């Protein structure tokens, strides 16, 4: 499963829907998914990968507790195309 939440607590696709709590909600989502995937993996004998597309800009990255979030993911994919935009 690859999560592409643009961007938790930081002017995402619908800025009016963002809330500062989304930073913690994002980490909780990863934690809950990891738990469910590990539970399923214990039953099937498989490892299910969890990854996330993550922001490339410091302002957005600083909002997330990456030490905690990284405990639940196998991979993180930096959206490096964010370095080039319409600004």
Name the average pLDDT: 90
Are there runs of 5+ residues with pLDDT below 50, and where?
A: none
Q: What structural class results from the helix and strand content?
A: alpha/beta
Number of discrete domains: 1
Strand order of the largest sheet: 1-2-3
Strands, count:
3
Largest sheet: 3 strands, parallel
Shape: elongated
Question: What's the helix count?
Answer: 3
Overview of the molecule:
By secondary structure, the protein is of the alpha/beta class. The chain has one domain. It has 3 helices and 3 strands, in the order βαβααβ. Strands 1-2-3 form a 3-stranded parallel sheet, with no helix packed on it. The longest helix is centred in the middle third of the chain and has 23 residues. The protein is elongated and about 45 Å long. The mean pLDDT is 90.
At a glance:
Pfam families: Glyco_hydro_18 (PF00704). This protein is of the alpha/beta class and 87 residues long.
List the helices and strands and how they pair.
Blueprint: E1 2-3, H1 22-44, E2 51-54, H2 58-61, H3 66-69, E3 75-78
Parallel strand pairs: 1-2, 2-3
Protein name: Family 18 glycoside hydrolase
Pfam family, one: Glyco_hydro_18
GO molecular function: hydrolase activity
